[in-house]
């Protein structure tokens, strides 16, 4: 099912026109739910029907087994009662007709007792002596019994034997099946040695169950003995197949097997009916889906085709083309929007023509602004050479350091620099301050090894150092310590000084990135913090701790990286 859905979606995507896609989409939407419902309904219904059918067959077989086992138990109980009577009465029955009145009375009492055991189910009970004499049931013909093939077969067994057959030893021929049990009796029971007890039970109840089962399930049911010989079956002309559904139960008493065999087509007949209805419903859904898909696709694609034609004409340069608006629905809104868009595009073309001229003017101004840094560097170089010719080495060295610092601040091509280059610019700035304040301050730099190639935003250290000299120190007196180290791929720069510090009132403005009222400058710290956050995110940047008249501590945090494009957000 999943493969079918994926193939349908792929065909919709590959379809050429919108109309084809809509037809396929409507067709899938109309038929897929019905098809899926029919499939799952057939699957589940078939499963339930087949399960119920199988459960009924098993129930019928179990009922037949219980009934036959019950009949056998009843016959066994009757056999036990007769043997108990023989033992308790101590009668003696001969192989011949009684010659004395006493023998006649005992035998008559025994016959009356046997006759009392006969009931609706028990047809006849009798004792057959070795000479063929019948005791207990005058209805059995002794000559017919002696000539009976079934009795001859039974007489061969030396133990209890049960069979289902149509007896041929009654004077009135019948076609009713009987369950016959024959039990050998020894002479200890007062009977001639070799006598046998015969109990005939009607099998009409068993046959009724079999016929009812055959009628309900259109199947074949049979009872076989332990050797596999068929004792009773619904029909003798049934031909079994390998794909038959078979259920069987073994009787508890005789080891007989009750077997129900249902042809494959019969068992799945209900499923086939469900399948035919499911196919019919699916076919009807497909037909309706095709009709609906054709109707709606034409209705929706016609305005779209007209709009596509207008768009093609507009793309070819016909700026005055407009599409007609014939409805107030979404398609009408789309056509109206296209008309407005074409009008706006025409205005935009004119606007672009005006802005192109302004752009050219802006580029000329940009080229003009690029001249200013070159002019500044050339002028400083000229002053440097003048100082050298005038033998003023201090002025010459200050200009050398200033040129390096200005070159770093005016180089807009690189937003991220190796840490070593940024430290070099900071060192040049420190040297300029030494010429200014001489040896009134100390500067100590500690950098963890192997961090020189890590990247840092351009011109962030110099503004921090400049802030110390302009706001932290008095006449340049004090101590500055800068430490740079790494912890878990995070770089830390800690810049400490022992200057005048910052008042708590001013810290509120600095912490919020605002300019301190009445103070000159103050935007350098905010500029540094914003650049770190722009490059690396809000989790990184600058933090300040300060105690008035004790000093200030500035901490910078940023991720360790050596690729200029790896972490920059812009």
Automatic annotation (TrEMBL):
Transmembrane segments annotated in the record for this chain: 21-42, 277-298
Alphabetized GO MF terms: phosphorelay sensor kinase activity
Gene3D superfamilies noted in UniProt: 6.10.340.10, Histidine kinase-like ATPase, C-terminal domain
UniProt keyword Nucleotide-binding, yes or no: no
Chief site of localization: membrane
GO cellular component assignments: plasma membrane
Domain (HAMP) ranges: 298-350
Location(s) in or outside the cell: Cell membrane
Record key words, sorted: Cell membrane, Kinase, Membrane, Phosphoprotein, Transferase, Transmembrane, Transmembrane helix
Superkingdom, natural source: Bacteria
A Pfam family recorded for this sequence: HATPase_c
UniProt topology in membrane: Multi-pass membrane protein
Name of the protein in question: Two-component system sensor histidine kinase YesM
